[in-house]
Amino acid sequence: MTQASPRVEILGAHRDRLGECPLWDTREQALYWIDSKARKVHRLRDGSHMEWATPSDVGSIALTRRGRIVLSVEDGFHLLFPVTGTTRRLAEVVHSGPSMRMNDGRTDRQGRFVAGSMVMGRHDKDGAYYRLERDGSATRLFGGIALANATCFSPDGRTLYHADSFSDEVSAVDYDPATGAVGVPRTLFNTRVHGSAPDGTTVDAEGNLWVALVQAGKVGCFTPEGQLLRLVDVPTPYPTCPCFGGPDLDVLYVTSISNSGNLMNSDHPDAGAVFAIHGLGVRGLPEVLFDDEALA
Known about the structure:
This protein is mainly β. The chain contains no helices and 24 strands.
């Protein structure tokens, strides 16, 4: 891996309360992301900014083949129609406990959206991972988590990575690309030694994991076995989630927090900004689109 000196760019004057889930659309050459607490989906394309409202706090999104956007929100999965700004619920998720919502998610290599849930105001492991299927139904994959994060897939699609941020652990699950069957989660590494719980995560073209170390103001690059390859400083107190984008998929975009509604809030002028980190010498993978061809 080339150890280039990165250059950090701040994208515009917009500041999110709880920025999350950046995604690069290679068709539009546009960056999408969300503000969970402001209940917004954002798009930046050619310097032009657009936003759409979501029906409740939004945990993650997926781009779709037909140009719509999948939302993971409080009660499950919804579909956002950007042309009209309207939404429609696809699949309800019945949570195992009170005060819960959907959180971090990623599309698998076959075009199905996998997202986990989270508890709010407590640490009970009532959360679970669910998969939104191509027909709009939801399948429960596994449970036993409190705060789902770090959701992403290995380049071959055979490993689902995830974290329970309250445990500080990044884990892996064997994932059958054809059937969608999952194995038993196994712990890979703990990020507390680097001063933070794990937050959002993406995988580069070499299969390494880029993990937002939200409490440390950094993004860490790790091998799938947990070996730290490098740390990249992000000039904000609480970076939340990275993705690779740009014309050559070699720019690392990172969202951040200004006020998450709990312990993470900052009056730093760049808190809540979206950052573009250039010159890392690393390329990402194109974002997989959710297969919504069968959905009305």
